[in-house]
Specification:
The chain is an alpha/beta fold. It has 10 helices and 10 strands. The strands form 2 sheets. Strands 6-7-8-3-9-10 form a 6-stranded mixed sheet, sandwiched between helices. The two termini are 37 Å apart. Bound molecules: adenosine-5'-triphosphate and magnesium ion. Adenosine-5'-triphosphate (ATP) is lined by residues 16, 19, 21, 39, 41-47, 88. The site of magnesium ion (MG) has 3 residues, from helix 1.
Length: 260
Amino acid sequence: MENNTIIEIKNLTKNFGGICAVNNFSGELKKSQIVGIIGPNGAGKTTILNLISGVYGASSGSIIFNDKDITGIEPHKITHLGIARTFQNINLFQNMSVLETIMTAYSWRASYSVLEALVSWPSVSRYENDIRQKSLYWIERVGLSDVTDQAANSLPYGLQRRVEIARALATEPKVLLLDEPGAGINHSEIHDLVELIRGLHQELNLSIVLIDHKMDVIMRLCDWIYVQDFGKTIAQGTPEQIQKDPIVIKAYLGEEDLDA
Ligand SMILES: Nc1ncnc2c1ncn2[C@@H]1O[C@H](COP(=O)(O)OP(=O)(O)OP(=O)(O)O)[C@@H](O)[C@H]1O
Ligand SMILES: [Mg+2]
């Protein structure tokens, strides 16, 4: 594994019954890189993220993170190691405020016992205050200060996606996996989303895997792009190479205006 590689995937395959959702995928994410995965509906993009984040076990192949084989490790352990994600189908708790939602990201680190919590020792309230302050920092950083106390799942989609990004960041990841952050967001909000991701990437020195159907999001952010179709990689390259690739245009980009 090269020194500046943070995730290396080798010959990863995932079968669901008769469907080969991911077919012998190999790829790498370098430190501080933004890598895109594009392809038509059902191409296997989300399944790749589900395999990296431990939601599914692989049928075969391996995922190496910082020289450690993480294939088949449970999701919370993968989060703990430094890989965080957002969900294509927004996955927020019912009736929890934005602040409470972000605070849950810290709960797995809680060092106090249930008994201590019940008797409300000063150390507990100090701890709670500390995670509250940290959570407020992320809320502010993603531009949600105005809705801190509102129910997260009642917000417009664009803001819910920011809640998910803040919750992921609160786990202090080295790698961030973003599954369609641009979905359900209108054209005028896309620019802000791209700038948010770009800013977080630089400021936090994050390595990012980004899935999106919105080509302007992908092309503006990614250093390298994998193009998936029916579980297989049909092309990979820089945004410039992908936009010109005849195989990609035929299989996926079709009538879309790539210069847009
Ligand atoms: N839990 C599952 N059980 C059975 N089949 C699944 C499961 N998850 C995904 N699949 C199948 O695997 C294939 C790849 O799905 P996946 O969600 O990874 O595609 P995708 O590229 O993310 O598509 P989209 O752009 O629509 O989000 C599809 O045929 C899908 O129906
Ligand atoms: Mg998907």
